[in-house]
Each structure stands twice: as structure tokens, then as C-alpha cells.
Design brief:
The chain is an alpha/beta fold and 415 residues long. It is built from 18 helices and eleven strands. The protein folds into three domains: 78 residues; 183 residues, Rossmann fold (3-Layer(aba) Sandwich), CATH 3.40.50; 124 residues, no CATH class.
């Protein structure tokens, strides 16, 4: 622990910036985080290390995050400084949906299966980030529009905020706001609010997953225990995941055994993503870079020049939005691999997953504010491929198939 102002060059020097591999700015002030990162960038020019300083800057406000990521020192890496603007709450949601992927707890790839239905108890930033990432990543072999039930006294307010930030959300998800507190619900009221029924006459798909995101550990624990009790008599109980540290002091204080068997639910530590393993781990970036380099190689092999589009620059020169899109493609690969394991490696399966990849890619652009136009226009966020898979030209469909084929067991490295 070193008291002081991180914007001070002296404090950064005392903290060992000259020797550091990375700097993580994680205060609850977006402005302070950006100022510390700027001071670190200036100080990094005096570093003697050959490797650039990796700097991860938490910015919660989406608009400010987009503006900051366009700054030259974040857009392009130099030999002193490699900066990235991110939202640790979004990182937490992505990790959560990787560890508790919906298609791992429900049969979402096979024909004739129910739509995915997820319950989110809460309306905080993590709850909203879960909804956003479901819109981005919940794309499976069978086309479906997942259902998300938000259950919290402020659920409608959260949905209004989400819809304002992401106008395309309703085309990707059916989000239902239930303005009620979970502890106040009886078993019958919960089945009513979530469209379930013990007699088989449910009005909504069966709940596959339930995430509890209440910020106070005591509230999260109480909600998790209550939800487990309420769903005890259901024919198919959802997998409940409570976002709280697995060894929270609250559990010890009330004498609760912190095993999933005793609790009736699993736990997820939202703060674990602040560790170096998540923020500084480069596995996703390494794979995303590899996929992008393979994409550029195909363009060159076809005799077409690079740098004609913002998506066709070398990785270190890419716009952060393009890098993020590449990362999300990599994060979706386990979903496709599980589908291949379940459905087999036939040409029909490849085609199903190519369609899913196109839907995922479209969701990525739609959530970022893009829309269809016959002519591609980066500046105005218009794209000619924001159409149904059947309307794509064969070369574009083949690109989606190639994304799937590289995941086949005998595919080898991307080429």
C-alpha cells in the first residue's frame, strides 16, 4: 500500500512504474482513472524496459469509454505504452457467462429445444451487463430469441436504461421487467412472475439459469437461499448462481456451509476479475490476434490490398471496437465447440453454426449502433451485410463457415 495521488509522477515512480509489467486503474472515478493512465503514459517514456507498459483503465460510463478509446495513446500501441480502456463490470459478466454458459446447463443446440430463459435477480450494473452480454453471446445452432426476466424493485428502470443505451436490444432478447423484491415472493407468485408452472402449463420457457447480483453479500445470500427454497418443488429447477465471494464472512457469521450442496446454489466472485489472471491474462488477445492475422492473410492471398477498411489493419493499429469484436468471436468459440461435440462434425452442423456465427456478428454490430445500408460506411456505422444469412453472397457465407471449420478437431491452427 502506497498512499498518495496516482496522477503524481513521483508517486508513480515510488510505486515502481519503471519496473512494472502492467498498471491497473480501478478507482470508482472514471476521470481519476484516465488521469492516472495519462500520467503513467508520460512517465513510461522514461522507462528502460523494452516491453511497453500495459495499462488497463476502468471506465464505467459507456460514452466516456468510447471517447477515451479513440484517443491516440489507446488506439495505437507504441514501444512505451499499451493502453486499454475497459469496464470491469462487463469483464465480470463475460467471465460469469463463460463459467456458467447457458448451453452447458440447457440443450440449446438441438432441434426442437425450448428458447433459453434466464432470470436475473437485481438491477445493478452487473445485472445490466449480464443482459447485454446475453444479447451479444447467446447465439446457438438453433435460432432463438432468448427470454430474460429481470426481477427487482428497479427492474423497469434498468430496462429503460438498457433500451436507451442499446436500441437494438429488443430485437435480440425478450426482456421482461418484474418490479418486485424476491424475498417478498411466495412459491406461487414466483412461478407467476417467471411464467413457470408446476402442472406443465407454463407461459414462458423453462428457466435454465438464475443469477443473483444484489451488491450486499447478506442480501445476495438471503436471495439465493430463498430462491432455492422457492424452486424446490419445480420439475426442472434452474441452476442458481449467486454473485458473492464463496468464502464471504457473511456465511461464516450466520453459520452457513459454503458448499453448493448445502446452499442449493453456486457462487461467483464478481471481484475476482480484478485479479491479474483475468485482466492481465493474454489468452483471449493472443487468439484474437491470431484469428485477425489469418483474416488479413486471406485478403492478401486473394490479391486484395490491406488497409482499405478499418477492419483490415494490423492488430496493433486496429480500432479498439474492432479488437473487441475479435475478442468476442474468440469468446464464442467454446459455444461452437460444444455444439460440434453434441451434433457432430457434419457439413450440416457447420452450416448451422455458420448461421449462428452470422447472427452473433450481426448482434455485435447492432448493439454498437450499426444499421443496414447497401453501401458499407464505417463513419456512419452502416454495413451491407446486416441481412439474413440467406441474403449474403457466397464468399461471405464461406467466411462464416471458415470460422466454424477452424474449430473442427482436425482443423489445425487457423490458416
Amino acid at each position: 500500500m502506497l498512499p498518495g495521488d496516482g496522477r503524481s509522477a513521483d508517486v508513480l515512480h515510488q510505486a515502481g512504474l519503471q519496473r512494472a509489467d502492467a498498471l491497473v486503474c480501478l478507482t470508482d472515478s472514471d476521470a481519476a482513472n484516465l488521469r492516472v493512465a495519462l500520467a503513467a503514459r508520460q512517465a513510461s517514456e522514461r522507462r528502460r524496459r523494452r516491453a511497453p507498459l500495459r495499462c488497463y483503465v476502468h471506465v464505467a460510463d459507456r460514452s466516456l469509454r468510447q471517447i477515451a478509446s479513440e484517443a491516440p495513446h489507446y488506439r495505437q500501441q507504441d514501444r512505451h505504452f499499451d493502453g486499454r480502456v475497459l469496464d470491469v463490470v462487463d469483464v465480470a459478466a463475460r467471465v460469469l457467462l463463460t463459467e456458467w454458459a447457458p448451453d452447458r446447463v440447457a440443450p440449446l443446440h438441438e432441434a426442437g429445444t425450448e428458447r433459453l430463459h434466464v432470470l436475473v435477480v437485481g438491477a445493478d450494473a452487473l445485472a445490466r451487463a449480464i443482459v447485454v452480454n446475453l444479447a451479444l453471446q447467446a447465439h446457438y445452432a438453433q435460432p432463438q430469441r432468448p427470454v430474460v426476466t429481470l426481477l427487482d424493485p428497479l427492474a423497469s428502470q434498468a430496462l429503460v436504461q438498457l433500451t436507451a443505451e442499446y436500441p437494438a436490444l429488443s430485437t435480440l432478447l425478450e426482456v421482461r421487467a418484474q418490479d418486485v423484491s424476491l424475498p417478498h415472493l411466495s412459491p406461487s407468485r414466483l412461478t407467476e412472475r417467471t411464467g413457470q408452472a408446476t402442472d406443465g402449463a407454463a407461459s414462458l420457457p423453462t428457466l435454465a439459469l438464475a443469477f443473483v447480483t444484489l451488491e450486499r453479500d447478506i442480501d445476495a445470500l438471503a436471495a439465493g437461499l430463498h430462491l432455492s427454497r422457492l424452486t424446490r418443488g419445480w420439475p426442472r429447477r434452474p441452476q442458481v448462481v449467486v454473485c458473492m465471494p464463496p468464502h464471504s464472512e457473511v456465511m461464516g457469521a450466520v453459520g452457513v456451509d459454503n458448499t453448493a450442496e448445502a446452499l442449493g446454489f453456486a457462487t461467483f466472485d464478481r471481484y475476482s476479475v480484478c485479479s491479474g489472471a483475468y485482466l492481465l491474462g493474454d489468452a483471449i488477445d493472443r487468439d484474437a490476434r491470431q484469428r485477425h492475422e489469418a483474416y488479413l492473410a486471406k485478403i492478401e492471398a486473394a490479391g486484395r490490398p490491406l488497409r482499405n477498411k478499418p477492419t483490415q489493419f494490423p492488430w496493433d493499429e486496429l480500432d479498439e471496437m474492432v479488437k473487441a469484436s475479435n475478442r468476442r468471436q474468440v469468446e464464442h468459440e467454446p459455444v461452437k465447440r460444444r455444439a460440434l461435440e453434441q451434433l457432430g462434425n457434419s457439413a450440416q452442423t457447420v452450416e448451422l453454426l455458420a448461421r449462428a456465427e452470422h447472427r452473433r456478428w450481426m448482434a455485435d454490430l447492432l448493439m454498437a449502433g450499426w444499421s443496414y445500408s447497401p453501401q458499407y460506411d464505417w463513419a456512419r456505422r452502416r454495413h451491407n451485410n446486416l441481412v439474413a444469412y440467406e441474403e449474403l453472397d457466397e464468399a461471405t457465407r464461406e467466411f462464416d463457415r471458415a470460422v466454424v471449420r477452424q474449430l473442427l478437431p482436425d482443423a489445425g491452427p487457423p490458416a
